[in-house]
Amino acid sequence: xxxxVDIVEIKRIEKILEKRRxxxxxxxxxxxxxxxxxxxxxxxxxxxxxFATKESVSKLLGVGIGNLNWKDIEILHDKNGRPxxxxxxxxxxYLKEIDLNSIEISISHEKEYAISFSxxxxx
Length: 123
Hints:
about 45% helix, cytoplasm, magnesium, metal-binding, fatty acid metabolism, CATH 3.90.470.20, fatty acid biosynthesis, two-stranded antiparallel sheet
């Protein structure tokens, strides 16, 4: 098993959204993620949670953002609202390199912070 974790201050995301919401969304999120965010009325907690998850997954994979594009890590939600990673071909490549079979994620937020924890399971 491998893990990745990230925590984001929600105020930091609020400031980004005030100044450059559209360019931030376009750079970091896929169309499906933006649609989800907009359905949550552009809630900074939601945005911070998704952002933290992208970071935690990149840490789990051991590559960081740079080797991966923000949009290579897509967070979707099932009918019950449970988040999951849409495994892109680029992520699949990294999973094979480190012999992981799957990734599970958890996202939580409170008044000031959003946190994400990612677990990868070996084959």
